[in-house]
Amino acid sequence: MKQENPIKLENLSVHKETILVYRKALVDYLFSINRAQDIPEVIAGFVDLDQIPGNRVAVTVVIDNLHTIMTYFQDEFIGLKVVNFIDIKALRLYQGLSKCIAPLSQNVSQEVLFIVSCRLIIGYLTMLTDMVEINLMTDDNKVCLEFRPVAEHMINKNHMDMIVFIIVKIVHAISGIKPTHLDVPYRVATHDLRFYNTYVGVKAKSSKHNARLNYYLGQSIKTLFKSSTYASFRKVSKGNLFINPINNMLNDEFLPLSYIEKCRRVLFTTMGIFEPTRDQVSQALNMSISSLQRRLSDENTTFNDVLLDLRKELAYKYLIQHRMPSSYVAYLLGYKSSSQFFTAFKRWFGVTPKAYQQLHLTE
Fold first, then answer.
1. What is the DSSP secondary structure assignment for residue 186, as one 8-state letter?
2. What gap in Å lies between CA 52 and CA 58, rounded to an integer?
3. What is the mean pLDDT of residues 138-145?
4. pTM across the whole model
5. What is the pLDDT of residue 298?
6. HSE-up of residue 65 (Cα within 13 Å, Cβ side)
7. Which residues contact 353 (CB under 8 A, 6 or more apart)?
8. Rg (CA), the chain
């Protein structure tokens, strides 16, 4: 397994538009509570983004902005109150997702749109911020989005609330599906938890793990992706070409990634939605299969090696860290059946997924 590199704060960033959208929402919120007179003083404490080159801003700027707001208002729920005024259509993440989803929206069910949008958000969250990672967990008809801070000591509850509910709004705008409830690790009092329902319309429960959005679908994930609705989705989307718009937007923001990383990003986003093949990945990267193979060869690897390494890495994550049933792990890794996954897994590690899971969870 890969060892995690220590997080360097200077390497974390947020897109400028994310900050500007939040600042506008704050102004709208102040107008709504008749405190427009406070706007000049609050804004005076913000960093001038025009003085920062490029599209990305160091996360320290976001932290300073939040500190300014919290110090001024002395309100531990300011994040929840402001997020309700955020215009998600102004966010590049939403713009990219909506372009990807638009050709499909009239041809597939809400549930399929929901799953596709969740996978895209997880794969491309960095367009919004890279301070948080989102994990997808499924069990029968339950889908859970878990939010894990990348630099936990630098993120406060207001920042986490904003990220979580921006995702709630994006997913709802695309698929029409809302979470049934939110698990919150940083709020305990019943009075505090009621604020979530009051301000953003989502019930909240106190928990000991990371923040989690919980959704319940009308049918199980496995049934959904074997249905005629999903077959229609695959036909309409013609492979994974739906991912091209957001790929192109991402390329404009960051330094060029290696082709290994590009493949991993596409595979992670689409496994469990499409069969992970050279054809699918090359389409997503707007290149021929032969060009993809040549680029990977230049980096001393092959497509099969990239796919195998990622599958092993995710198998460990889903089975051990998330404790997910092996049948769902098989789906998430893009296998056609559980038996196909079991055979591959035993070839990798010498034991079945269940035995591997039991061994690690009892250590």
1. S
2. 9
3. 85
4. 0.81
5. 96
6. 23
7. 315, 319, 326, 329, 341, 342, 345
8. 21
Ranges 186-190, 245-249, 300-304: which has the least confidence: 245-249
Q: Cα–Cα distance between 193 and 205 in angstroms, integer?
A: 7
Separation CA 253–CA 56 (nearest Å): 8
Residue 317 is given by DSSP the state: I
Question: DSSP assignment of 282-341, as one string?
Answer: HHHTTS-HHHHHHHHHHTT--HHHHHHHHHHHHHHIIIIIS---HHHHHHHTT-SSHHHH
Delimit the domains of the chain by residue range: 9-89, 93-223, 256-361
Our CA dihedral for 316, 317, 320, 323, rounded to 10 degrees, sits at -130
The model's confidence at residue 116, banded by pLDDT at 50, 70 and 90, is confident
pLDDT value, residue 252: 67
* 256-361 maps to CATH 3.50.50.60: no
| Distance in angstroms (rounded) separating the CA atoms of residues 162 and 81 | 9
Q: How high is the pLDDT of residue 227? A: 54
Task: Answer whether 131's CB lies under 8 Å from 58's CB.
Answer: no
Q: Which of 215, 124, 135 shows the shortest CA–CA distance to 175?
A: 215
Cβ atoms 42, 72 nearer than 8 A:
yes
- Classify strands 181-184 and 13-15 as parallel, antiparallel or unpaired: unpaired
Q: Are 242 and 100 in contact (CB under 8 A)?
A: yes
Q: Give me the amino acid identity at 270.
A: T
